[in-house]
Structures are given as structure tokens and as C-alpha cells.
Model the fold of this input.
Amino acid sequence: MADTEVDSFDAVVIGAGFAGLYMLHRLRGLGLSAVVLEQGAGVGGTWYWNRYPGARCDSESYYYCYSFDSALEQEWTWSERYPRQPEIKDYLDHVTDRFDLRRDIRFGTRVTGARADADGRGWTVDTDTDTDTDTDTDTAPVRCRFLITAVGCLSAANVPDIPGLADFAGRWFHTGRWPHDGVDVTGRRVGVVGTGSTGIQAIPVLAEPASHLTVFQRTANYSIPARNGPLSRAESDAYKADYPAIREVQAGSTNGHPFVVNPQSALEPPDDERERAYRAAWERGGLRFRASYADLLADEAANETASEFIRDRIRETVEDPAVAETLLPRDHGFATKRPPIDTGYFETYNRDDVTLVDVRADPIEAVVPEGLRLRSGTVYELDDLVFATGFDALTGPLLRLDPVGPDGTSLRRAWAAGPRSYLGLAVSGFPNMFTITGPFSPSVLTNMPTSIEQHVDWIADCLAHMRDTGADRIEADRDAERAWAEHTREVSEQTLLPRAATSWYLGANVPGKPRVFMPYAGGFARYTAACADVARRGFEGFRLTGSPAAA
Ligand code: NAP
Done:
């Protein structure tokens, strides 16, 4: 296509995961023209890229899905309590076809930059074809009035900058960019760096075929048993019959999960009663353990009761006391970092062919051709090295796009000291740009599809309001943005969350990243009410203007 032929749309959406797909559906409903630009060769976002062994969602399947269409809720049946990556991908393919979304998605198209027009009323989006597709895709820029990022919070893979990686004689992988045709580790010596949610899912699965698995742990982690299993027909039918009530509980919740948090303090009941409550939650399994008491994330002494209960389970499970000791998390409280759930994680350390290495005590110094070398000089010989080292979370995916506002300021420059955002939805200086689940929104502290639907609906309502009032430019006010940042900081400080020094919520996992607590910790229901209030007041905190030509 010649440079002069530029496709133009009302909206460009970047990313075809849960967020981008629903956004496209809502834009169509408003009668707006839209295209989704997607780097991968298929839909799924997180669930397109994260194909590592054991990849599975930590939210339960019956609510890790869209709620916007009751017929969709009724026709899709999940096979397990927690859905595996391929099943979520199948679900999103089903949604894509059911709502005929595919024809407006350009796969294999990576956004390399976006520039706002000088008047802030439109954007030019630069694209490139990606190697992960054989689609012959147009690489000309695309024009739009509104730029909507649906790039996810955990999509920018964080590969640690360890010297020598290029000389490694074996194979290495990041879990978030796992090869699509799988990786056979049968009979091989495998090393895993990282014990976050991903590592904790992958380690027991990789241990099975590997001849030896070595886990390099920097920070010991809490984990709750998932208690996964097949979903029976009767269970699925019961969820389907109960959806209106389930959705109501989610809407009024702190985390977007359909759990009611016990309003009691963990310090109120006698020890034996509290122990029984924790045991019941442990047996039930899953993230719901967090809902055992109201103040687990607000009071250190309350939190310590849960933390110590889990440490006891680790001591009980792991046969070698020295290994158990290394696995005990002591530098942060339970759930102050995102708590993993697992299937047989701690049990894996009872295998003769699994070794735990404490790389806080003896840090990784270099990758050498034969494996990993620690500061002490010890070398662990490996055939395969797996980085389960997480992501440059929340800001990373947006900074990789690095949009440039009308005055020439890039997002990277605007956020040099840390992110700023109004409601997590918009950034001052970047008019006509919306960020689904951006920093300072509840996003990663919630069940993602729930937050995504709320954001997309809010953006769609905002665009409908602009259409109805003849506005064609919207920009967050700097003052409203400052006030929201202050509120976000205040609500996070009412919790224990910012105290976990190595948390990716704070940006602590990426060297040089500004330390700012990024997700909104005031609760999903409170956040939703704040967004609704802003809309009710005519999108207070935003400057909406009409086109001079149209005036
Ligand atoms: P993560 O929570 O950031 O964990 C990364 C791990 O790698 C940590 O143990 C970290 O240690 C370690 N690490 C990072 N750099 C290192 C280095 N240079 N040397 C040694 N160790 C290093 O990442 P993740 O496990 O991929 O999970 C990220 C988030 O994705 C989760 O918290 C969750 O929100 C989401 N997730 C969800 C699911 C699900 O729903 N099923 C599954 C996986 C992930 P430190 O703690 O010391 O930094």
C-alpha cells in the first residue's frame, strides 16, 4: 500500500485479549468504526502468549469470563474449576467468532509508535509486521480519532539482565513468551529462576519429565492449594442458574471475585476457632483464603496469623527441614504480594530430582555456557533455563508503545518519575487516549475480566456522551489527575500492600523503575462508584471540547 493511502477509523484498539475484544464489540454497538491491532497471530492476549507448562488461571472459571451477555454465559461450559490456558484461549476464540469480531482485527501487527495530532483530536498509529504470523499484513500507519490501549498489565516480559546469557549453550525461555509448539524437557536438566505465581505453577509440571530440576529462589513465597478438579455438569448448571446473584456479589466486592469477606478481625476469635477457619479455607483452596478475615491486608498482627498458618503447612509438607526453612516466606506478609495458588508445589521439593537454591543468600552472578554460576563460584549445569521472572507490570506495556502527545512529549518522558493517570483510564497531555486497566486502576488486584468490563463500559459511555454532546476532544485535567494519584496513594497506605519491598505492584522487580504503588487498592466497588460519579457529573475532571469546524 502506498504511503498516501492511510486507513482511518473512529477508534484504534491495541490488543486482542479480553479487553480489546469487548472494546471492539462495544465500539461497534455505538456505530463507530474500529480496528484492533494485535501483535500475535490469534486472539487471547495474556492467554495467547503464556503457554508455559501448567499455565492456568487462578480465578475460578465460572467467573473468569465475560458477564455482558447472558446467552454467552449460558452456552459456554467450563471443564475444570480453574481453566487451563488452552481452554481460555478457546473461550476467547468462541467469543470472537460468536460476535463476528475477527474481521476487524489485524493480527501479526505490532504497534511501534503513536503520535497525537497537534490539535489533540486524532492519532497516527505506526505499525510493523511481527514474525509470529504468516499473515501478509499492511504496515502503513493507521489514523484514528481515539486511541484505546488494551495491552494488559502483565505483557511486557521481564528477562533479567544476567551477564553471559548470549553464550548459554542450552535453550532458554521466558514463560510469558513460551514457544507455541511446546518445549520437550524430557530427560533434561532444567533450571527455573523465579517463584512467583508462574514459577509455582510451572515447577511441579516441569519436574515430571525433567531428569533434574533446579529452582533458583530469590524470595520465598506463600501459596494456597488450588484444589483444582473437573467441574461436574451439576456444578456448572448451578453456577449458570445463579449468575445474576454471582455478578451482584462481584460488583459489590473488593477484588471482583464473588466472595463475601468475613467482616471479623483475625484477632477476634480464640486461637482454636481461627485455626479451624484457616483449615477450612485451606481445604477449600484458592484465592478465597484471603477472604477469611477482614483485616488480613490492613493489620500486621492479623496478617501474621495467616502467614504463620501457611508457614506451618510448608513445614508440615516439606520433608527436609533445611529445605522447608528456605521455603518459608519471612520478609513480607501473606497476600501483600500477589498470592499464588498451586497444585503440588511444596510437595515437589520432596522429590530426589529437585533441588532448591537460595539465590538471596548466594546471588546469581552469570550465565555460563554450561549453566548458572552463583557469586560463591558454584555452577549449576543446565540444559534448559526457564525465566519465570515476571513482567514490567502495568506501565511496561504502555511505555513500550510510548505514545507522543500533541506537544511532542512522550509517555516515557511524562512518566519519568513514575506513572500519572486519572482513574487509570486517561493521562493528562494525551488527549483522546484511553488506557484500559492502566496504572492507578484496580486491575491486577481484581479478577481481570470484571475490571476490564467496567473500564470498557465506562469508555463506551464516555464516547457516547461525546457523540451526543458534539465533543471531539477529551483530556484529563492535571489537577484531577494529581488528586486521583493522591487518593490512590492514601488508600494503598491504609493497607499493608506497599510494605512488600520486592513487589511488582511497586515496580520493585525491574531495576531502575520508579517505586510507585501502581494498582488502586481502595477496592473494586469503591473505584466503580468513583468512576460512575465522574460520569454522572458530566465527566468531571476531564476537559471536553467540540471541534471548531463543527461549532
Ligand atoms: P512475579 O510474581 O514477578 O515473580 C517473578 C519471580 O522471579 C519472583 O520470584 C522474583 O523474585 C524472581 N526474579 C525476578 N528477577 C530475578 C532475578 N534477577 N534473579 C532471581 N530471581 C528473580 O512474576 P510471575 O510469577 O510471572 O507472576 C506475575 C503475575 O502474573 C502474578 O503475580 C499474577 O498476577 C499473574 N499471573 C497469574 C497467573 C494466574 O492467574 N494463573 C499465573 C501466573 C501469573 P523476587 O520476588 O525476589 O523479585
User: Anything to note?
Assistant: The chain has a mean pLDDT of 95. The longest helix spans residues 448-469. The first strand starts at residue 7 and ends at 14.
